[in-house]
C-alpha cells in the first residue's frame, strides 16, 4: 500500500511517500540560532570548512625536518595543487591562485567524502547550491583575471578571436558568449552535482535493497532471499569503494577546470 508520509509503517508493509515534492529537496532545521534554522546541510558545510582549516593548521603549524604523518599529507596535497594544477596549468601568475585552488579542492574533497562517511552518508556537493556557488566564484575569478590582464579589450578578445572575418562576428560572438559566459559555469557545477547525486542514489539503493531482501515484515532473516540480499550488499560495497575514487577524482577535476578557466583569461594567446 502507498499512502501519505504521515501514515507510513514499514513493518506492516505500508510504503511511505512524501506529502509534497519539496520534502525531497528541503531539509528541516535541526536546531535554531535565534530565528535562523540550521539544517543538516548547513551544519555539514560548516563542519567541512572546519575540517579543512584544522587539516591545514595542524599540518603546517610546526614544520620539522622529519615531517609527521599529517605534515606529510598536507605537504603532498599542497604540492599537488601548486605544482600539478596551479603552476602547470596556469603557468606564470599561477602562484597567486594557489590558496583558492587549494581551498576548493579540500572543501570539495571533504564534502564528497561525506557520502562514504559512516553516520553522515550525505555528500554536501549533491545539493546543487554548493557546486553552483563554487562555480560562480571561479566564474568571477576568471572574469576579474581577464579584465585585470587585458583591460577593456578582454571581452572583445573573448567573443571574437583576432583575424575573424566581419561577416562571422555575429555568429561566433553569440556562440562564444553562450559557451563561455553561460554554459561554462553551469556545466562546471552540474558535472560535480550529477556525479555525486548518481553515486549517492546508487549506493543507497543497493544497500537498502539488500536490507529489505533479507529483512521483511519483521522477519529476520527471510528464507530464500538471503543470497539475493547478500549479492546486493556485495555490489553495494564495491560501489562504496568506487565512490571513494569518484569523490577524489571529482574534487581534482573541478579544481583543474577552475585553473584552466583562469589560465584562458591570464594567457589568451595559449
Notes on the protein architecture:
With 270 residues, the chain is mostly helical. It has one domain. Helix content is 64%, strand content 4%. The chain is built from seven helices and four strands. It has helices at residues 40-60, 69-90, 98-113, 129-150, 154-159, 169-214, 226-266, and strands at 2-4, 15-17, 31-33, 36-38. The strands form two sheets. The protein has a two-stranded parallel sheet with strand order 1-2. Strands 3-4 form a two-stranded antiparallel sheet. Strand 3 and strand 4 form a beta hairpin. Helix 6 (169-214) runs antiparallel to helix 7 (226-266). The longest helix has 46 residues, at 169-214. The termini are far apart.
Q: Can you give me a brief rundown of this structure?
A:
The protein has 270 residues and is mainly α. 64% of the residues lie in helices and 4% in strands. The strands form 2 sheets. The protein has a two-stranded parallel sheet with strand order 1-2.
Write the layout of secondary structure elements.
Elements: E1 2-4, E2 15-17, E3 31-33, E4 36-38, H1 40-60, H2 69-90, H3 98-113, H4 129-150, H5 154-159, H6 169-214, H7 226-266
